[in-house]
Amino acid sequence: MEETVNRNPLYTKYHPKWYRARIPIFWWVHKVPHIRFIARELTSVAVALYACILLFQISAVADGPEAYLRFLAWLKTPFSVLLHAVAFLFVLFHSITWFNLAPKALVVSLGNKPVPPAAIVALNYAAWVILSLGISWILLK
Amino acid sequence: MKKTIEPFWWGLFGAGGTCAAFFIPVLLFLNGLAIPLGWIQPPAFEHMFNLVTHPLTRLFLFVVISLSFFHWAHRFRFTLYDGLQLKHLNQLIAVLTYGSAIVGTLIAAFTLWNI
To answer: H or E element: which one contains A114?
Structure first.
């Protein structure tokens, strides 16, 4: 019996054996934790978008001083500033949720005592600050 | 077949999420907000050029950009499954998301190699 239930995980439009309720596309808008879940998942869009912008910046620098200045001018447009402001909120949300979940993914022991989850979170935030300062120094020195 | 490759995508998702969490906020804030809004002077072209042509910077940028794409691919794939309830488009979504990440990685490699 279980065999027949589990054998085909692929979707079929109609299956005579059991009924599955249809879930509306916007099932997640009614509860704050669900909205937060979808927002967290959508931070990946901001991450990928910024990876693309970074690539454009790199090729602008590679193309020479004029292309670099053109790129800097584009960054000043209201569209770009708004886009970056929204993306910044999303990537911050990504970092915060990521570091807060780190103890769940990373269980470390010192000797035979487990390192408390709060310490792992704190270490992540400390590393975040140090790496951010390091990047700022390299970029702006 | 699918079951054997899933941990591979998840590993890229995890590595990408960690890289993005550490490096994207500062890069985005400086390049996309602080400099355009005039809070900080933009770095001179010479400095940017020397920075971007340095092998270590190129390697760093390649890793951050490529892993960010794979992080997006895996997470967005499941956003579409769970959020938009598109489970019946399973294979198509996987091909489009991971495929985009692979194409993005190739473009990043090409761009960074040819500076």
So the answer is: strand A113-114
Architecture of the domain delimited by A10-94: Up-down Bundle (1.20)
Tokens of B39: 């809070």
Nearest chain A Cα distance for residue B5, angstroms: 17
- Asked if CATH classification 3.40.50.360 holds for the domain at B2-113, the reply, yes or no, is no
Verify whether the Cβ–Cβ distance B28 to A81 is below 8 Å: no
pLDDT tens digits, one per residue of B22-58: 999 999 999 999 999 999 999 999 999 999 999 999 9
Contacts of A61 in chain B (CB under 8 A): 45, 48-49, 52, 115
If you count residue pairs, one on A and one on B, with CB atoms under 8 Å apart, how many are there? Answer: 159
Count other C-beta atoms under 10 Å from residue A127's C-beta. 13
Q: Identity (one letter) of the amino acid at A103?
A: P
pLDDT band at B115 (very low <50, low <70, confident <90, very high): confident
Please answer whether residues A51 and B64 qualify as being in contact, where contact means their C-beta atoms are separated by less than 8 angstroms: yes
Q: Where are the domains of chain B?
A: 2-113
Nearest chain B residue (CA) to A34: B83
Q: What is the DSSP string of A51-113?
A: HHHHHHHHHHHHT-HHHHHHHHHHHTSHHHHHHHHHHHHHHHHHHHHHHHHHHHH---EETTE
- Contact A98/B111, CB-based, under 8 Å? no
Higher-scoring residue by pLDDT: A57, A22: A57
Q: Within 13 Å and on the Cβ side, how many CA atoms surround B75?
A: 27
Q: What does the domain layout of chain A look like in residue ranges?
A: 10-94, 106-141
Q: How far is A30 from chain B (nearest CA, A)?
A: 13
